[in-house]
Specification:
alpha+beta, Rossmann fold, 8-stranded antiparallel beta sheet, 4-stranded parallel beta sheet, 15 helices, about 20% strand
Length: about 375
């Protein structure tokens, strides 16, 4: 079952419009009071102490209140008082919809009952993970920390659906991948649409009005995935796994529209939602045995195009995209990208321009031969 928020549920039933939902969510967000803000208002904490706790949160999966107590900034009684005030002042989406006249109280009660009955089967994380997975506990940790840090860094509530195996990842705008090596050889990924990537960037920068170019946005997403995976690593170490993480990689959809993992790897994807957007998170792992999807559909031939002409890339993609059993994994516009994509996607076939900026043809050829590319077609 796909994860849903109450607002999405109402949209699908055509109870409210998209604009009514956006207006209500914006109002709800403006009215939300954070524990740190309350603590300053009550003079339990200074602004400097709140800033320090917020920075410490990036290195751990602990709640604001937990850290404040551990650091000796708050007592348990003070924290409980702040939480009570926060809960008493929280405005739920349903309340906003009634205040704005979009729903009646009776409608809200009936719709909430229907919504909760639909969502109950997927509330527990253990129900989302494939049974008997060799890394069941590790995946549970990975999902749990992702949810917590989405809530604490960009302040977004994340809901997850049941994990499933697939042959590729549709890259709607930005794909962020982090490699884990050591006793676990997996890759963690988040695939985001552009609107959500920009929203996360604005929230991490604490400026809702600033605009970002794509590269700066990718930097913020890399920061988020790096913090998530750093916390995941510390939890893995407690389980006895000896792992290291590598620098996050960013892949834009204009580079690779559909990511296909190297041969011998498979994708375990979890559909996800924040209140206004859909995304995908998951892992790319080495196949213990042939995945069921490959038994059904067979192995596709992966093709990489390396040409600095955008027009040539488009023409080749158009000409070849209709071929059955062929997966165009990307178009590299310079020698450095050709190196990186050859390593990342392990293509069977490469169409290579004879003159590429950044690297000599000989260097690229040596790399492709070393990577055991089956066919190299020289163009230009």
């Amino acid at each position: 079952m796909e994860p849903k928020f109450f607002g999405q549920f109402l949209l699908e039933k055509k109870i409210i419009t998209q604009q009514q939902l956006l207006d209500s969510l914006e109002y709800q967000q403006k009215m939300a009071i954070k524990i740190g803000e309350l603590a300053i208002k009550k003079k339990f904490l200074t602004e400097e102490q709140v800033d320090f706790i917020n920075q410490e949160q990036r290195r751990t999966d602990k709640l604001f209140g937990e850290l404040a107590i551990e650091l000796g900034f708050l007592t348990q009684q003070q924290l409980e008082k702040l939480i009570t005030i926060q809960k008493n002042n929280h405005i739920f989406l349903g309340q906003v919809l009634i205040e704005k006249g979009y729903l009646t109280g009776k409608q809200l009660s009936e719709l909430l009952d229907e919504f909760h009955n639909q969502q109950r089967p997927i509330e527990n994380l253990v129900d989302l993970i494939p049974e008997n997975h060799p890394y069941f506990d590790e995946i549970h940790i990975l999902l749990d920390i992702t949810i917590k840090l989405f809530r604490r860094m960009p302040h977004l509530i994340l809901k997850l659906g049941k994990g499933y195996y697939q042959s590729s990842i549709q890259n709607k705008f930005l794909l962020s991948i982090v490699d884990f090596s050591g006793s676990m050889d997996i890759k963690y990924f988040i695939s985001l649409p552009s609107e959500l990537a920009y929203e996360i960037a604005r929230k991490l920068y604490h400026d809702e009005d600033i605009s970002y170019d794509d590269e700066l946005t990718a930097d913020f997403i890399r920061e988020l995935t790096n913090v998530i995976c750093g916390n995941i690593t510390s939890q893995f170490l407690e389980l006895g796994q000896k792992v290291n993480i590598h620098t996050p990689k960013s892949i834009f959809s204009n580079q690779v529209e559909k990511y296909t993992p190297p041969q011998g790897w498979t994708i375990l994807a979890f559909p996800a939602r924040v209140p206004s957007h859909e995304l995908t998170i998951g892992i790319i792992e080495k196949s213990v045995e042939e995945p069921e999807m490959q038994k059904q559909f067979g192995e596709k031939t992966r093709l990489l195009i390396a040409d600095d002409s955008a027009l040539v890339c488009v023409q080749l993609c158009d000409a070849l995209s209709s071929l059955d059993n062929l997966d165009i994994v990307g178009c590299a516009k310079n020698g450095d990208e050709a190196f990186e994509m050859a390593e990342q996607y392990s293509p069977h076939i490469v169409i290579l321009d004879l003159i590429m900026p950044g690297r000599s043809t000989n260097q690229i050829l040596e790399k492709l031969i070393k990577n055991s590319v089956d066919v190299i077609v020289l163009s230009g």
